[in-house]
Every structure is written in structure tokens, then in C-alpha cells.
Amino acid sequence: MAAAVGTGLFRAITVSPPLHGIVKHEPGVKPAHHCGTNGCFTNPWPSFRERPRWNMFFSVLSNQIRNMPKVPDNISSLIPASTPNWGMGENVNSIKATWLGHACYLIELPTPAGATRGARIILDPALSHRCFSSEYLGPGRITPVPCKTEEIPEVDAIVLSHNHYDHTDTKSLQKLVKQHNAHVFAPLGNRPYLESCSIPHSNIHIFDWWESSQITVDLPSSAKSDSSSEGHNQSSTVQATFKVICTPCQHFSGRSANDRAKTLWASWAIEEILSSPSIPGSGDGEARAPKKIWFGGDTGYRTVFDGENEDDVPVCPAFKEIGEKIGPFDFAMIPIGAYDPRSLFSSVHASPKDSVAIFKDVKAKKALAMHWGTWILTTEPIMDPPRLLKEECHKSGVPEGDFDICGLGETRFF
Predict the structure, then answer these.
(1) How far is residue 115's CA from residue 299's CA, in Å, rounded to a whole number?
(2) Which residue in 119, 111, 130, 184 sits closest to 153, CA to CA?
(3) N or C: which terminus of the chain carries fewer CB neighbours within 10 A?
(4) How far is CA 14 from CA 217, 243, 309, in A?
(5) Domains in the chain, start-ordered, CATH in brackets?
(6) CA-CA distance, 236 to 53, in Å (whole number)?
(7) Of all helices (H) and strands (E), which one includes residue 215?
(8) Strand pairing of 212-220 and 12-15?
(9) What is the pTM of this model?
(10) What is the pLDDT of residues 265-297, one digit of tens each?
């Protein structure tokens, strides 16, 4: 299969075919996560135990009705929102991460020498008011999106963890692809849905766990001073290259009552590939290592049923494997919310205690929290996730600020 080449409105993006190699599978034998019933995918670890589906549905519905948490009157000060500036013009040698709510971050990799910006990747862009199949039903946001989708600067890649509505939003995808001609990276089984969104076949790239691709983007050159900062001169561009790696997580998928686990779920690693070891603008040839990022998507860590001690149940081994095979990571985005009650949600949603364990397992140097403070999906109090995260970091010896929370629209540098 040849590399896919997409020509954006002003730039070229080249994507290599998915490559195996990080984890070897025995020829002719299905990987363990392909061995679910009725052709579905599965979580192949003792850390995942599932309740009967009919019981789960009614338990979740009943729990939500009886125990819906109250939105604090001062939510806008507790979770501040500001119009993003995307860190433009600042810290060109750093990763820039801007939180747009829930699990959506806009990432900009370090700026190559001679370019006006670094490669940009947006993760799980669900930017509509509701996370459901209808814009009139389902959970509505309790905090605002910090900007309009149309105000997001040029995006090169869209990375999706799985197809749940709070992570994969049709309108957001359609707007971003139309506006930027971005390429979309998603786990197995998601091509039919993405093509139904009118995304060009050549812009869709589908991966199994441990597959990777190399992406090269032609970025605008800073040499052409009479053009805007985002403008492109076809004869004056600078190439940036990075790798995306589809990595495991413990979750499930589905957008209707009859497609549960028909498509795969994933976390993702992103690794900068340097054409030159020198730091842009340093002028002294000073070397640095390529930056590495990990995006947790949506994941559980262990399954805890009523009456069980969570310290006695198995934990998911995938995260240590990710840390050993790909880490350490300069920066990670890790979910911290939607975990209560534990007997219902522990298998698929990490608690803050789980999140800190994942932080350590993947060998993250720094992390920001996500998957909280946007929609009410479960029954823990709105501000419990960041409070408990701070407590768990302290208990586990994670230095203050290494695993942090940020405001909506805020850009952090790593």
C-alpha cells in the first residue's frame, strides 16, 4: 500500500501506511483483543470484568436519575474559561497543549527551524453542546467550549480514541476536515462511519493496536515575511515529521444499541521525528531529544465490584507495556473523571487513584487531566476529580504540578 498524500488548501500532508513491529503477533493467530464474541473486540485482561448488559443499562439509568450531582453556582470560577491564544509565538521548542474541554486537546509540536509553527494535532474533538446522537437530547455542557470550531488554527491531524459521542462528534469532525483538510487517525472499524461524514477516503487512516504511521507536513516558512503567519508559499515550506502509534486501553465502543464493541478503542502515542538534532533558533547546534506525547483517550484500570477491595483486584497491564516499549513521555493527557459508582464504571473509567497509577505506568514526566468538568456522565461531585487527583499525587509521591489540571482554553508548555 502506497503512502497517502493529501494536499490541503495550502499544504501537503504525507502519511505512510500503518506499520507493525512494536508488538509481534503469531502468524495466523488472532490478537487477543480480536477474540470477542460475535466478531466484536474485547479487553483481553483479567482487569476487565463486565456486568450483564441489561443489568448495566438499568443500573446506570437509575443511578443517574437518583444521584445526579449538582452543578456548583460558581462553576465558572472553579473551572475558568478563556479565549485560547494557542501559545502562538511562544516557546517554539516546547509542546503546546490547549484544553478545549472533556478529552479534547489541541497539540502543537515544537516549531522546526525556518517554520512559522509546529505540526498540529487535535485529539477527540467533541465540541458540540450535547454528546449524543441528537442535538436536542442527551447531556448538555456545564462549561463552555472556549472557542468556536471555526476559530481553531490550522490543524494537520485529527486523532480519535473511540466512537462514543463524548469523544467523536460528527459536526466537529466535518467542520475541521472541511476547514483544514486534516487527516483523521482512528482505531479499527471506524472507516465506514468516517466516510459517512463525507471525509475523503484518502484522509482516513485506520489502525490496530501497536500499528504506527509516519506523517510529514509541509509547514509555512517564516522566510516569506509578506504573508500571514498561517499562510503558505508553495515554493517556501518547511517539513515537519512525526509518528502516531495506536496503543491499547481498557474501554469499549458503540454509538447505538446494536454496535457495542464492533469498532476498536485505543490510546495514542505521538513522537516527534527530528530531521536535525539542533534546536530551532539556538544558532549553536545544541541537541535535544525528540518530544514524546501520550493520549489516554478513555480508559479503565481495574474492575471493582461492590464489596471488593480495589487494591486486591488485577490492574490493566497495557500501560506498563506502553511505558516500557514507547516511553518515557514528555507529556501525557490522562482521564480523571466519570468513575462513580465504581461498581458500574471502574472497568471503563479511571478514578484519580487509577489515573496516577497510569501516569506512573506509562512513564510520563508531566501530565494534564481530562475527561472531567464538561458533561455530567456519572455521579461523583463535579469538583471531586481534581481534588482527589491532588490527594492521590501527594500519596503516591508525584511532585506537585507534575500531573496537573488546567483551565478551558489555557495553553501549557512542555
Answers:
(1) 36
(2) 119
(3) N
(4) 7, 12, 49
(5) 4-20+31-69+83-278+286-413 (3.60.15.10)
(6) 56
(7) strand 212-220
(8) antiparallel
(9) 0.92
(10) 999 999 999 976 555 444 444 678 999 999 999
